[in-house]
Design brief:
It is a single chain. With 537 residues, the protein is α/β, with parallel strands linked by helices. Helix content is 33%, strand content 20%. It is built from 18 helices and 23 strands. Strands 1, 2, 3, 4, 5, 20, 21, 22 and 23 form a nine-stranded mixed β-sheet that branches. α8 runs parallel beside α9 and α13 crosses α14. The protein is globular, with a radius of gyration of 22 Å.
Length: 537
């Protein structure tokens, strides 16, 4: 007797092999049968009626660390067919917490992770993982140890190498995180304090990750003019530590750099040919999203957000920042100079009388107010206490397609938590968009390979255990969708729209979403990489 029996499906099993007609039996949270036999008894029978049946999609790069606790229904992701998210990316996470630097940490992560509606009940990485495990959540979650947050806990925003004692403390906390079930270490070399770290410091930390067969995930130091040396840097780190490397959201930012993704992928292939384990991910949009402060020179970000705002208020340092933003820089990627303020769109702002600026470019806002665009950006940052999200049009669509087709690239959303404003549409539409645009319209991926890049590939890459395949003994994370109807509805102008075409979503064997309605089942779990067990409730 199965709990659920799905009949008449076109099964895309996650392997990349051609789909086939068949039936699936689910029992005790796992796939218990895949085949053509119809003679089975079940408590519930669902007729897929010729629709596609695939493993639940795995969002291997997102920033839902706090959102999943604030909104445990996870409808934004479940509506896309996502059943598992990987958090702690880009060196950003709400742990570990050192009470001395708690406010610094919160201001550091808030523009990306959002401001938690609940009190932070945790201090250690293990505390946070336990909170996820105790909470009734609707999807599965795995997490990295985040290097930026780790460094803040030990050193604050100090721009210097760690002392021997500080390095030992970071290694100890990292090791405790790995023992608690983290999948590896993530870094964000574009963001302070990650940007203050040398490759030698990171290689030493990665030796701890290697000890636990973890993954080294990297938001590289530069994605524009410095793309190639930045890729070389993280390959060097991974090689020194003998740790698998995953390059986050591979792209070439700024028009003068378009096409460089080919060279970046060649570097990855050369590393692989030497025996290294290197992969990357990509999101299916030509615009990115981050916080407005990220566009400032690295030196202007030293000391945390309070120091940044003080520099913007000081006429001398303000003019220095403004001057540097007006010219290409050799030391760092100045995406303002290479792309322009007209490509920087305000996505989220909190002050009521400024919310009219959401969805508009800094260039257009500055024109309305008769200000220099840089001064306009600085004034908004001061008034908003630095917490402004942006959508940034700085990529070439052909580059996106090339990376998406790359055999060693998986698909993820890189979605930021955004409770207000006009977030990047990838928050609501990433996975259906792959099918509607890149499988059906552009024909650059087959449906089988698209599913593989969202299921078995990330499951294997991130050490998620028996997930990502429709085969007996694997977790019954399942999506049933209509290939003809699946389509993303989130746009840059109107992003908060759920997609069409996804009928059923199962998480750990429980029907969680049916015809766009949450069933009130909350059967997700924290995936402990140290044990790789499938937990069911």
């Amino acid at each position: 007797m199965f709990d659920t029996f799905i009949t008449n499906g076109k099964i895309v099993d996650g392997t990349g092999n051609p789909w086939f007609y068949g039936n699936i039996g689910i029992k005790d949270g796992k796939v218990a049968y895949v085949g053509n036999d119809r003679a089975h008894h079940a408590k519930e029978v669902i007729d897929a009626n010729g629709r596609m049946v695939s493993p639940g999609f795995i969002d291997g790069h997102c920033h839902s660390d706090l959102m999943i606790l604030d909104f445990p229904e996870s409808e934004i992701k479940l509506q896309q067919g996502v059943t598992t998210e990987v958090v702690g990316n880009c060196g950003l996470a709400p742990v570990p917490v050192n009470p001395l630097y708690k406010e610094d940490l919160q201001s550091y992560v808030e523009p990306v992770l959002g401001k938690a509606n609940k009190d932070w009940k945790w201090q250690t990485i293990s505390d946070y993982f336990n909170e996820l495990d105790r909470s009734l959540i609707s999807e599965n979650v795995a997490s990295y140890v985040a290097h930026g947050s780790l460094r803040i806990a030990v050193m604050g925003f100090e721009n210097r190498p760690p002392t021997k004692e500080e390095m030992e403390e970071m290694k100890y906390i990292l090791e405790q995180g790995m023992k608690a079930g983290a999948i590896g270490l993530s870094i964000g070399l574009l963001y302070s304090p990650g940007s203050y770290s040398s490759k030698e410091e990171l290689a030493e930390l990665c030796q701890v990750v290697a000890k636990y067969n973890g993954l080294f995930s990297t938001h590289i130091r530069g994605e524009g003019n410095n793309l190639i040396p930045s890729v070389k840097e993280v390959i060097w780190i991974a090689d020194q530590a003998n740790v698998p490397l995953h390059v986050s959201h591979l792209k070439a930012a700024g028009k003068r750099n378009w096409g460089k993704v080919q060279e970046a992928m060649e570097l990855i292939e050369k590393a692989r040919s030497r025996g290294m384990d290197v992969t990357c991910d990509v999101y299916p949009y030509s615009a990115g999203s981050t916080m407005l402060t990220t566009l400032l020179p690295p030196w202007a970000l030293e000391g945390g957000l309070t120091s940044v705002l003080e520099r913007l208020k000081n006429p001398i340092t303000r003019e220095k920042i403004k001057h540097e933003l007006s010219e290409e820089q050799e030391e760092w990627d100045n995406l303002v100079a290479s792309t322009g303020w007209e490509s920087v769109i305000i996505s989220s702002i909190h002050t009521p009388h400024l919310k009219r600026y959401e969805g508009r470019s800094v260039a257009s806002i500055s024109k309305e107010n008769s200000k220099d665009p840089a001064d306009q950006a600085f004034d908004l940052l001061i008034e908003e206490n630095g917490n402004i999200g942006i959508v940034f049009f700085h990529m070439d669509e052909q580059d996106v397609k090339h990376v998406m087709q790359y055999q060693n690239a998986l698909i993820a959303s890189d979605s930021l938590t955004c409770y207000t404003g006009k977030p990047h549409p990838r928050l609501y539409g990433t996975f259906p968009r792959v099918f509607s645009k890149y499988v059906k319209q552009e024909n650059i991926l087959t449906i089988e390979d698209a599913v593989r890049k969202m299921t078995s590939f990330p499951a294997k890459r991130f050490g998620l255990g028996k997930r990502g395949l429709l085969t007996e003994g694997y977790a019954a994370d399942v999506v049933i969708f209509d290939f003809n109807e699946i389509e993303d509805k989130a746009t840059y102008a109107d992003p908060k729209n759920y997609p069409e075409g996804i009928q059923y979503v199962f998480v750990n064997g429980k029907l969680t979403t049916q015809e766009k309605q949450h069933t009130s089942q909350k059967c997700g779990c924290f995936i402990n990489s140290a044990s790789q067990t499938i937990l069911t409730r």
